[in-house]
Amino acid sequence: MSTAAASIVAVVLVSVATLAVGAFGLRVSRTMSDFYVASRGVGPILNASAISGEYLSAASFLGAAGLILARGVDMLWLPVGWTAGYLVLLVFVAAPLRRSGAYTLPDFAQLRLESIHVRRVSSLLVVAIGLLYLIPQFQGAGLTLRTLTGAPLWVGQLAVAVVVCLNVLPGGMRSVTFIQAFHYWLKLVALLTPLFFFAGLWASSRMPSGSGAVDVADWVEPLQGDHALYLTYSLVLATFFGTMGLPHVVVRFYTNRDGRAARRTTLVVLVLLAFFYVLPVLYGVLGRMFAFDLVAEGRADTVVLELPSRIFDGALGQGLTALVAAGAFAAFLSTSTGLVVSVAGVLSQDLLRRGTGPGLRGGIRAFRLATVLAVGLALGLTFVSAGVPVARAVELAFAVAASTFCPMLLLGIWWRGLTARGVIAGLVVGGGLSMTAVVATTFGADWEGWFGVVIRQPAAVTVPMAFATMVVVSVLTRATVPTHVNLTMVRLHAPENLDLDRGSFHPDPSRTTSRSGEGTTARRDNVTVRRG
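Structure for Na+(H+)/acetate symporter ActP, as requested:
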């Protein structure tokens, strides 16, 4: 069997196994809460495996090793930042976000700011970030199949889109949780197994001679090149703070049983991610020794896929290549399914729900329609976008998340003075500037000088501007601080086992809002509180 045939078999097996695991999740999906947040009943170990499977995307599996191969030690900030972002999430966000009772980021925005306008702006940003993050997943799938089989790029992109739809449409978040947990362990095995064989060759002194050399000046020493210091700090800022603003990451914390389980989940995620991210670094170093020609050919992203066949001959090389291909396809599927669930949840609640009928059946119909719409939009954007390296495209998505939802979450959870007008102004400034940079880069624009540098890596400018805008505008509009902010803060910060009046929140914008008389119960933008 040729390497291409073995790889095709591996990809088909992963797709079939993914659908089988998703079918199991379908058997236990019965309510709208199952579709959106798996009925908030996922334990820490399973949820941590699912979060890790979802988070380890095409950029983690292929792109990080490719950038380390091409650009050296400076790119180590990618795995460090992607992991450390969860530490920030653990300390500041995880438990309060779970206690909020929301299904999506727009739900949280509406609960905290008591404003339907903030919800709408947040919904637009969730869709934008989700689509932006889906593009590199589809790109990576096309690149993988083209590298292994010679198929056109669109074949792999379409294959991932179809399998993702088949996964998400039947069972929503409940199915996706089982699928992503399975994918994490598959990806880990796919990268670990070839390294064990590499280590065996190394120990026996039978390692083949390398085709590349390490240039100390531009690969081992950090901060080399023009504007290196700015680019590094901007990358650190984007990866550290972007994690908490990614809709598909944040939504998983809504599936925990309580705030304590959310913290435990995050601790396990840190362990799983830290262990995994050692592996792409090793592949990047091995690629520098045995596949350095990929850099000159513009194919650095394929180093993980090509290393096994370059070092091992015969059936062993084919088998290891097929295993890596299976892991890569799992990476595209797991992240894409999480992104589609988060985008479809927002689209179905805020855009499509009113036209699909009332009740459970209408809600599920809206979710499924939104799923097809999200996948179709992302696939179309992938076809027309420029060939930005996979990890670079993900960096840009992190920059947008860090410039929008990160300041909204941190300030919303920890500062009572935040106002709806301040949030909208900050989201417009941070999101507008960062999205402009992303669109320019994604579609091939290239400028010289400092302007071009900021466009390539905007987070160091846009994140501080977003924070400053939210704070300044909120101070100027302090008279519009949400009426029920004190009760909301109790809801976010008080442990669940305390018997307190937390109010109630219905994360469904299709419900009719109303106000009752003074001294009874008032509902404002779906936030129900007691007065008097």
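The longest helix spans residues 153-203.
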